[in-house]
What does this fold into?
Amino acid sequence: MNREKAKLMQMEVCKTAQKMYHSGLVAGTWGNISARVDEDYMVITPSGMDYERLCPDDMVIVNMNTLEYEGNLKPSIETVVHSAVYKDRAEVNGIVHTHSTY
It folds into this structure.
């Protein structure tokens, strides 16, 4: 895995999560965001954390083949779904899932 790209994806996923929160597209911990790092890894928002308080290091790096992850925070409960999309659709590089009232 390219660590530099994984760090960049952590920053992008975090920035997107905060933009979603501030635009009213999510409330609290609802929804999830991920980005593909390469054919084996993705970065996804952690489970149960308020988007307003997230920092890039909170974004979870997940092996899409084994679903093993790095760090102390658990990945979103939707990790299996995001992983399946990435594995089935090589052209998809990012997923945004909201529970918006809009």
Notes: The mean pLDDT is 91. DSSP finds two helices and four strands in the chain. Residues 3-22 form the longest helix (20 residues).
